[in-house]
Design brief:
Jelly Rolls, five-stranded antiparallel sheet, binds zinc ion, 231 residues, alpha+beta, 46% helix, 8 strands, 2 domains, 9 helices
């Protein structure tokens, strides 16, 4: 059932064992809420498969994604930094699996182990830098650039070229209307870059889609790529 989580893999075997001793292996279905905005975080997660999105949902019903996490990091690291509750929900976008650990256990390991602290802070910095980039992206780049960026980022995390994605959830991620998603996806399809069929997107021409995506894709991907090459 499980793949690997790259953060866990980067830890020395002894520390990894300590961390996993209190963890539970869990299936994570699509739409599963990992952490909730304004709520105390009781558990942290290390995904081994699937993709989760950090989504800001406004009272008016609008929403936008501000970041994504897959098997390269952890969900819930904000609770190690201070007492503020998160402002975003973290929800499974593509079903998968992972390890769930009580936040109190994670906090103890974070305090005790310099190695855990280093890896978690490195990953948290990467997530914060990504959020900063996406904040600018959501304001400055057009729907086609952002949809292409989103599809490529999700495909990298899922390690697959076929993604489950309804127009409604794409609209929620990008903070645009469904009609904008339909028009944009239609245009990418006519250019032969994707094939879009009822709730599934197939990336047909990755190089072409990369050319359409804004530079935010390259920038955020480079940060993930070098995450574990840093000693
Ligand atoms: Zn962008």
């Amino acid at each position: 059932m499980h793949g690997t989580n790259r953060l866990l893999q980067a830890l020395s075997p002894r520390v990894r064992e300590q961390l996993l001793a209190g963890a539970r292996s869990v299936a994570l279905p699509q739409r599963y809420l990992l952490t909730q905005s304004s709520e105390v975080t009781h558990d942290v997660y290390f995904l081994t498969r699937g993709v989760a999105s950090f989504v800001i949902a406004l009272r008016e019903g609008e929403s936008a994604e501000i970041g994504m996490v897959g098997n390269e990091g952890m969900v819930g690291s904000h609770c190690l930094l201070g007492s503020y509750a998160p402002v975003a929900n973290c929800v499974m976008q593509i079903a998968g699996a992972g390890f769930r650990l009580p936040a109190s256990d994670m906090k103890r390991l974070f305090d005790e182990s310099a190695e855990v602290r280093h890896r978690v802070l490195q990953g948290t910095q990467q997530q914060l830098l990504t959020v900063s980039q996406i904040a600018a992206c959501n304001r400055l780049h057009n729907a086609a650039e952002r949809l292409a960026r989103w599809l490529l980022t999700a495909a990298d995390r899922a390690e697959a070229d076929i993604l489950p994605l309804t127009q409604e959830s794409a609209a929620q991620m990008l903070g645009v209307r469904r009609t904008t998603v339909a028009l944009t996806a239609g245009s990418l399809q006519r250019s032969g870059l994707i094939r879009y069929q009822r709730g599934q997107v197939h990336i047909v021409d990755r190089a072409g889609l990369t050319a359409v995506a804004c530079d935010c894709y390259r920038i955020t991907r480079a940060m993930v790529d070098c995450l574990y090459s840093i000693p």
